[in-house]
Amino acid sequence: MDAELAYLFRHAVLRDAAYELQLPSSRARLHELAFYLIEETFGGRAPEPASLTTFPPPAHQPHVLDSVAFELSRHAKAAEAKLSAELVNLYLRRAAEYASREHHNERALALWLEIADLENGAAHAQALRRAADHLSGSGRPHEAEPLLLRALKIAQKDGPALLEFGALNDIAGV
User: Fold this and answer.
1) Distances (CA, A) of 164 to 24, 33, 90, 141, 161
2) Distance (Å, rounded) from C-alpha 96 to C-alpha 105?
3) What's the pLDDT tens digit per position in 55-94?
4) C-beta atoms surrounding 147 within 10 Å
5) Cα dihedral value 78, 125, 46, 109, nearest 10
6) Which of 13, 97, 149, 156 could cross-link to 60 by cystine, CB 3.0-4.6 Å?
7) What is the distance between the alpha carbons of residues 80 and 95, in angstroms, rounded to a whole number?
């Protein structure tokens, strides 16, 4: 077992060293290529999920790419300006929905917080609510409450009444 661990460790170190030897522009092109290859392997571009500002939110429509959406979002981000922010957001959102559906609470929490940082107004508040839902579902309501209070404040300023009601309902639940 020790030899196998040593091999895995050396392989990871060698992989990381080879990656760092690439010029940043070459790395960006490789990430762009990886993005397109993965997307094509799984049947092409996934559809855009419903807007976070749609109330009540419709059920997420699963897609075969959802299982690799996290990797696609990372490749799109690492490709820098070569791929649009819309593609990063598309696959980041699909990755968050997938993690939520599969009950990967920690990953879903991190992804919803990342989405919240990218959004404004009602979409920002809704992403905070989704993150808080994972905290509360993980038995950490004391950590969910500040997120819900932020979401409520945003909803009172920028959101529809249903978003404000939802945030108040979530706060009451925690």
Assistant:
1) 44, 42, 25, 19, 5
2) 10
3) 777 888 999 999 999 999 999 999 977 778 899 999 999 9
4) 27
5) 60
6) 97
7) 19
